[in-house]
Input
Amino acid sequence: MPKQSASNHTTELKTVRISREAREVLSRDDIKKAITMYAACNWGDVGSAEWRGNDEAYKSDGTIKRRYRSAKGNPFLITTEAGKPGAVIKIPCRARLKGAC
Output
């Protein structure tokens, strides 16, 4: 899996919303590291097909889904959706620590 996108493009997030579940398990450092990786077009723990899909979505202003792990190993997602400002950080449904999704 590549460490950064072959196109070497970078991006900037203007707004970031963090779900309640993500706030409970992620540290500021986890979030800062993931946003830094995002800015370098490093899509995190995704396969090569999803990596290429994110590269194409970035170029065409599509939806980009990134997967990262916290320092404690908790998986989390950062999603930017086409036509919506900013990004959302959340814990995947299967990884939530409390209650049903």
